Inverse folding.
């Protein structure tokens, strides 16, 4: 399937949790669904060359908060379906919403490890603990 072909759509309610929907996707654009009126997000999956269409409010927030819509940056991501969750606040409180895990691919974050800062006290630290009382 080439770039000029129709995008691949997913029936999320029939999709198993932890299914990888996009292996190495680069955000291309947002369209508004003519049928439902909701935003749909198109990703070009470099892994198979297919355009893939996903929708969900949580995905929109991830795209916005991580500058994925800036096509000049071409930030590839892996997108995994995480099932539905009942919203506990906002305009859609009490309604189910599809959830996604979005992992950066090749952003340089993979090399960063959490480091624990350990502060040591030596004899040169001449603070008298009795003065603190």
């Amino acid at each position: 399937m080439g770039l000029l072909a129709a995008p691949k759509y997913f029936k999320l309610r029939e999709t198993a949790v932890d299914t990888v929907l996009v292996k190495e996707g680069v955000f291309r654009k947002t369209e508004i669904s003519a049928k439902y009126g909701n935003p749909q997000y198109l990703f070009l999956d470099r892994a198979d060359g297919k355009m893939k269409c996903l929708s969900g409010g949580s995905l929109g927030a991830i795209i916005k908060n991580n500058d994925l819509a800036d096509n000049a940056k071409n930030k590839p991501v892996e997108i995994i379906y995480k099932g539905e969750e009942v919203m506990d606040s906002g305009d859609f409180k009490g309604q189910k919403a599809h959830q996604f895990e979005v992992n950066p691919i090749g952003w340089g974050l993979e090399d960063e490890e959490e480091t624990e800062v350990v502060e040591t006290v030596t004899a040169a630290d001449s603070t008298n603990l009795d003065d603190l009382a």
